[in-house]
Amino acid sequence: MEEFFATWGDWTWWILAVALAALEMVVPGVLLIWLAAAAAVVALVGLVLPLAWQGEVALFAVLSVAFAYAGYRWSNQPNQQVSDSPNLNHRGKSYVGRTFVVAEAIVNGRGKVTVGDTLWPVSGTDAEMGATVRVTDVDGATLLVEPV
């Protein structure tokens, strides 16, 4: 094994970096690109400082762990962007505070309202067909309403 590493040339780390980067495009996941970056840094350091093969392998190991951890932390940051449509994927929440007309009477706490050209199930105080109700909250796909 020692002979194998001892015969590595200056281009070995560059070849490893390119191979890992190419493999990243084929293999699912986002780990190999960080290993490719570590190999590229080792290649750059090898141009400036003459290191023994043990030092190069140790540097590659340390940089691989550091880059993979940094990549993990960077990719798992909470999304700091403020959306102009925070309820885009929660359509019912966009109706909270709005008023609608009861399409099917609310009996025993259940009924339907017309929202645009769609009927939405509602839950709330009993109301006759044609009454106006205000949406106070959403429970799944059911709008929670109260009489206006």
Main traits of this protein?
single chain; 148 residues; alpha+beta; OB fold (Dihydrolipoamide Acetyltransferase, E2P); 2 domains; five-stranded mixed beta barrel; 4 helices; 5 strands
List the helices and strands and how they pair.
Layout: H1 2-6, H2 12-26, H3 32-48, H4 53-75, E1 99-107, E2 110-115, E3 118-124, E4 132-139, E5 142-147
Parallel strand pairs: 3-5
Antiparallel strand pairs: 1-2, 1-4, 2-3, 4-5
Brief sketch in words of this structure:
The chain has 148 residues and is an alpha+beta fold.
Overall shape = rod-shaped
Helix-strand string: HHHHEEEEE
Rg for CA atoms: 31 Å
Helix content: 40-55%
What is the makeup of the main sheet? 5 strands, mixed, barrel
Number of strands: 5
The poorly predicted ranges are none
Look at the helices and sheets and give the structural class: alpha+beta
Tell me the strand percentage band: 15-25%
Structure commentary:
With 148 residues, the chain is α+β, with helices and mostly antiparallel strands. It folds into two domains: 2-75, no CATH class; 91-147, Beta Barrel (OB fold (Dihydrolipoamide Acetyltransferase, E2P)). It is 41% helix and 24% strand. The protein contains four helices and five strands; from the N terminus they run ααααβββββ. The protein has helices spanning 2-6, 12-26, 32-48, 53-75, and strands spanning 99-107, 110-115, 118-124, 132-139, 142-147. The protein has a five-stranded mixed beta barrel. Strand 4 (132-139) and strand 5 (142-147) form a beta hairpin. Helix 2 (12-26) packs antiparallel against helix 3 (32-48) and helix 3 (32-48) crosses helix 4. The chain starts with a helix and ends with a strand. The mean pLDDT is 89.
